[in-house]
Specification:
three-stranded antiparallel β-sheet, SIR2/SIRT2 'Small Domain', binds adenosine-5-diphosphoribose, Rossmann fold, six-stranded parallel β-sheet
Length: 231
């Protein structure tokens, strides 16, 4: 039975009220990513970085999953083959929609990391640079988010999943940030069927076998229904 590998981006959480990055008025038009999403920015001004992520964490915790998150959780539940979800998103809306296997390649707002000893723990709703690490006591806590210039999580695992996918579906991403932007090329090279579901054409649209254009809360449930009807 077909193994399905899913990749999601900020577009799947847009209708839950969480901002995207590169649409008009997006997060990177409001904040300088060099200041809030790089290790150098954190070293320069940890308080600014924590306030940026405290606001995003509060938004994410107060948001609700939408029909697209719920449809993917249904696909994971009802599809007889393996379903693996890789997300670039740092919110936990997939998990709150009931999705079990989620690989957060860019980290998670609900997790904290110690920049001194590497310990991970559940993040409180608000975090501050002077908060002591529960493991080593150092005031070196940071959001457990993969910043530009840092290596995403689980890349070996991700590449193995893509190499063995029968179908690769990319949902709600502009395809402008590597390594995620390279996944469709790897999937095509592995002989997988490739599908893009997005509000509009992305940088990578020409690389997909099939495309569904529209808001995720419309096109994702329709696509999942179509997939389950093939069973
Ligand atoms: N439904 C479906 N797609 C949507 C919707 C929607 N309601 N709204 C926006 N989109 C699409 C946009 O057309 C765009 O192609 O979602 C995509 C969002 O693109 P970006 O804002 O670039 O977000 P993303 O692709 O997830 O960014 C990747 O960049 O800044 C880093 O780490 C950050 O994970 C992020 C990565």
């Amino acid at each position: 039975m077909q193994k399905i590998v899913l990749l999601t981006g900020a577009g799947i959480s847009a209708e839950s009220g969480l901002g995207t990055f590169r649409d008009a008025g997006g997060i990177w038009s409001q904040y300088d990513l060099e200041e809030v999403a790089t290790p150098e920015g954190f070293a320069r001004n940890p308080a600014l970085v924590h306030s940026f992520y405290n606001a995003r964490r509060a938004n994410a915790l107060d948001a609700a999953p939408n029909a697209a998150h719920e449809a993917l959780a249904r696909l994971e539940r009802d599809w007889p083959g393996e379903v693996v979800l890789i997300t670039q998103n740092v919110d936990d809306l997939h998990e709150r929609a009931g999705h079990n296997r989620v690989i957060h390649m860019h980290g998670e707002l609900t997790q904290a990391l110690c920049a001194a000893c590497g310990a991970h723990w559940e993040a409180p709703r608000e975090m501050f640079a002077e908060d002591p690490c529960p493991e080593c006591g150092e005031p070196a806590t940071r959001p457990d988010i993969v910043w530009f210039g840092e290596m995403p999580y689980d890349m070996d695992l991700i590449e193995r999943h893509i190499a063995s996918a029968s179908l690769f579906a990319s949902i709600g991403t502009s395809g402008q940030v590597f390594p995620a932007a390279g996944f469709v090329m790897q999937a095509n090279a592995a002989g997988a069927e490739t599908v893009e579901l997005n509000l509009e054409a992305s940088e990578l649209s020409g690389m997909f076998d099939e495309r569904h254009e529209g808001p995720a809360s419309d096109v994702v449930p329709q696509w999942v229904e179509q997939m389950l009807e093939t069973l």
